[in-house]
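Worked example 3 (structure in, sequence out).
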């Protein structure tokens, strides 16, 4: 892709992009030199960062599977990022091929590659929109065609809300999505945290601040406060590997650097 094509797609190669940095951390190839350089800076001060990204991804797959096992057949993945093996549609459609998935991201590379990955899958699609403006997502023709909000939906916000500071009212944002959901819908949410972390995390947050994409890390109580109107399901707000693990934990849970929850709308 040449410079003109980058500009046409709205791809900024002067600054690292959070979705592409995450893609690099989990071993993807949909990233650029600026993203890899920044990710390597993060790894330099927080060597555990790649592990954090991988265990968050593993939690996402478990949460999506849990939703499908509860009978949910509609999924709205907010800030979905790059398509990778084991993405939400693969997990839930392995349980029921008719399960429908709408991915949402505003990163042009994530959108372009998702469209390629999802080609031929009539029950999974990508919407390019800014998820901080729920009307852009909920009233998008693709969303309206794919999802029936009179039936339960699982909304997924994996590693999303820590990019939204309190000044931009993340609780209000989540409430806007909550209000359109039918009873029995679920919210799956994960976020970076200060809980159990050391100076390395402080240094990595400082790097994100300088990059123009600041992080707001939150405690379990702060995350719980963001999801009022939902009932947080067991095991509560826990480190990502502690949320319904498939296997016994080998590492200290705090090493994950992130918290997760799944909640239900009564």
């Amino acid at each position: 892709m040449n410079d003109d094509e980058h500009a046409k797609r709205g791809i900024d190669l002067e600054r690292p992009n959070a979705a592409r940095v995450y893609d690099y951390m989990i071993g993807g190839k949909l990233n650029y030199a600026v993203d890899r350089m920044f990710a390597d800076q993060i790894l330099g001060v927080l060597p555990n960062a790649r592990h954090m990204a991988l265990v968050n991804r593993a939690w996402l797959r478990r949460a999506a599977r849990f939703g499908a096992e509860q009978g949910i057949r509609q999924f709205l993945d907010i800030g979905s990022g790059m398509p990778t093996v084991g993405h939400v549609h693969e997990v839930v459609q392995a349980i029921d091929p008719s399960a429908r998935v709408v991915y949402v991201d505003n990163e042009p590379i994530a959108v372009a590659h998702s469209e390629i990955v999802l080609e031929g899958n009539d029950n999974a699609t990508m919407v390019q929109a800014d998820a901080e403006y729920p009307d852009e997502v909920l009233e998008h023709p693709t969303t309206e065609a794919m999802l029936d909000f009179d039936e339960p939906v699982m909304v997924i916000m994996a590693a999303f809300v820590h990019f939204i500071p309190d000044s931009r009212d993340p609780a209000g944002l989540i409430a806007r999505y909550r209000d359109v959901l039918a009873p029995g819908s679920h919210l799956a949410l994960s976020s970076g945290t200060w809980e159990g972390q050391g100076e390395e995390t402080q240094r990595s947050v400082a790097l994100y601040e300088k990059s123009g994409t600041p992080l707001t890390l939150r405690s379990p109580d702060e995350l719980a406060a963001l999801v009022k109107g939902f009932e947080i399901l067991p095991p509560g707000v826990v480190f990502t590997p502690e949320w319904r693990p498939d296997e016994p934990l080998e590492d200290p849970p705090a090493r994950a650097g992130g918290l997760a929850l799944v909640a239900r709308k009564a």
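Notes: The two ends are 48 Å apart (CA to CA). Confidence is low (pLDDT under 50) at residues 1-9.
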